[in-house]
Amino acid sequence: MLIPMKRFRIAGSKGAAGKLIKGLYRFGCFHVTSPSTDPALKDTGMDIGVFSEEAAEKFRRSESLLADIQAALAALPRTDGGPPESCPWPVPGNDWLSDEAFQVLYSSAGEIMDVSRHIDRLQKQIDEILQYRKMYEEFLPLIEMVVSSANVELIGVAFPKEFENAYQDLEEDLEQITGGAFSIFRSSQGEAGGAALVVYPASMREKIMRQAVGKKARPVHLPKQYSRDTFASTLKCLFESENEFHAELEKECERLTSLSKERRDLLLTAFEGLGLAIAPLRTRHFLAHSSSAFWITGWVPEKECAGLQKFLEEEFSGAVLMYILPPSREEYEDTPVELRNVPWARPFERLLRVYSLPQYGTIDPTPVMAFTVPLFFGLILGDLGYAALLAGIGYLLKRSRPHDSVLQDAAAIIMPCAVMSGIFGVVYGEFFGKLWGQLGLPPPLWDRKEETVHMLYIVILVGWGHVMLGSGLGAWNGWRLGFAGKAVEKLCDVVLLASLPWIVLGSWSGAGAGWSVAVPVAAFIVKLFAGKFMEVVTEAPKLFSNILSYSRLMALGLASIIMADLADDLLGSGLWIGFAIPALVLMHALNFAIGVLSPAIQAIRLHYVEFFSQFYSPRGIPFSPLK
Fold it and tell me: Between vectors from CA 625 to CA 621 and to CA 627, what angle results, nearest 5°?
């Protein structure tokens, strides 16, 4: 269910604003909002944000420092930690907003980022060297020879892939210019093209560069920082620098690891401490004020209003005024949402948050999902052996990390799904497929492999009930929000769906549809008048297609049991037992993985698409109180 909220407005003298904000943080149930969303304050023309220039500057510096600390933490490798004595710590008096704290934190974060940036530069230089090494590594002896000779020179050229005849053209040009006094050594062809080294007389350098290179064959330009007198000496210098860069990179990485051991945990503490310290400053953005007074507006759960009122009266002895009102329907879109359900349904709230919280004043479907999601899952998986494995996984998740709320909720969702799978496994008579019968267990109450048509009827009946429930909730939701047309539309959908069994049973009994058709026709006509004509015409067929969509509950279940039976058949297939048993285990493991993933996805999808489309109003704002 959705917790009822109250609009809580507090006014007082401007000098009491800081003390009030600290009090609201201590109480921990006030969801602050901008005055622009409060009908009583948005048109007053009051200024927003109680900041002196000094406080505003401190806030800006704090936000910038938080970003620097976050970047530094992201740059640090994970280590086992180290002695905190090696870092200038702790911050004097734990005053995170003091000048001393800023100096220490800026220095620590800055040193880490300098090392990180230096590592990035070294890595880029090494990558650049490797690029040229791949092109010319096979010609290292040639490069050494040319460097030691004053009569010949070397030039690197590249051949783009699109110019297939570039190599031949270059050879012809060099032949004509030098009279055959050259040698060309071609490297392996890469994705971007090829490369080559040309050895030629030093006296012909300008002529070759002007007439032979620069058309289809492009000169290779080496990085300027390695530049020497000739291309060959530059290339040699580049290769020789690689070892130096690797050594320097290793040294800087060790330095960064050392900094991580010294400062990672401490920077995490600083990030949290500084964030908490500037939270009241950030909250001042939400204050409306005049020359002498301030207003703050927000939301408080209804059951907490009396406690907050008493807290403020005791804290301020009547120096602040409080105004408490329930939200109007126009404010529902801006009212925060907090869900509160019974313990067995509460873990399913996480599935709702993945989709979207419901808008305030509408309906929380969590209790329905807590029953129907496991039901749909069990209808599909329905195997006692797989249910036992699933329950084991849920138990291990619950025991592995008791303080991890995500894993605890996942375990709490898995367990009822496993129970439903076990119940349907008994009904279907399935234990790792057909092993149920081979173990001599009683005949199944319902063999879904043999009763596929009746199984289809059952899942469609389940879908009919689920969609009709959604339409009923949609009618109730529309009425509560004051949307009479929407309420009538959804009520007509309920009538249309409720008349289906009447029509079907009349047709099967041979009595004919008769006057039973008049009811859905009348409901459809009323729906046309209540809603928009084209929307009604296009959505009415969708209502029935949504019901047919639940047939996947039967189809996926049949696919699972057929695969399980195929695995069991391996034992009686005459295969060598040393191969048959591992193959059986592998097929069951694969079927179990698919059988868990697919029902989970489809059970949730049937809620998000077929069920929620009938009534759900998304885009709820999460309740986030000052703490």
Answer: 150
CB 2 within 8 A of CB 339: yes
Kindly report the CATH number that applies to the domain delimited by 136-237: 3.30.70.2750
Share in percent of the chain as helix, strand, coil (round to 5): 65, 10, 25
β-pairing, 47-48 vs 183-186, is: unpaired
Residue limits of CATH 3.30.70.2750 in the chain: 136-237
Instruction: Write the DSSP assignment of 214-266 as a string of letters.
Output: SSSSEEPPPPGGG--SSHHHHHHHHHHHHHHHHHHHHHHHHHHHHHHHHHHHH
pLDDT tens-digit profile of 363-412?
999 999 999 999 999 998 888 888 999 999 999 988 888 888 888 999 99
Q: Is the peptide bond before 90 cis (omega within 30 degrees of 0)?
A: yes
Query: Reading across the β-sheet that carries 218-219, which strands appear in turn?
Result: 183-186, 193-201, 152-160, 218-219
Q: Side chain identity at 78, as an amino acid letter?
A: R
Kindly report the pTM of this predicted structure.
Answer: 0.66
Q: State both tokens at 537.
A: 């015409």
Q: Whole-angstrom Cα distance, residue 331 to residue 327?
A: 6
Closest C-alpha to 62, from 7, 127, 106: 106
Let me know the angle formed at the C-alpha of 146 by 144 and 150, rounded to the nearest 5 degrees: 130
DSSP conformation class of 358: P
153 DSSP β-pair partners: 200
Question: Which of 475, 555, 434, 624 minimizes the C-alpha distance to 33?
Answer: 624
Alpha helices per DSSP H over 433-532 = 435-438, 452-480, 484-508, 518-530
Amino acid at 467: V
3-class DSSP assignment, residue 13: strand
Strands 288-289 and 47-48: antiparallel
Contact assessment for residue 96 and residue 273, using Cβ atoms and an 8 Å cutoff: yes
Span 498-507, pLDDT tens digits:
887 777 666 6
Number of Cα atoms under 13 Å in the Cβ half of residue 156: 22
Distance CA(588)–CA(595), nearest Å, equals 10
Q: Is the dihedral of CA 199, 203, 208, 209 positive or negative?
A: positive
CA distance 464 to 468: 6
**Separation of alpha carbons 591 and 614, rounded Å:** 34
319: amino acid identity, one letter: A
* Length of the chain measured in residues: 627
Report pLDDT for 368.
Answer: 93
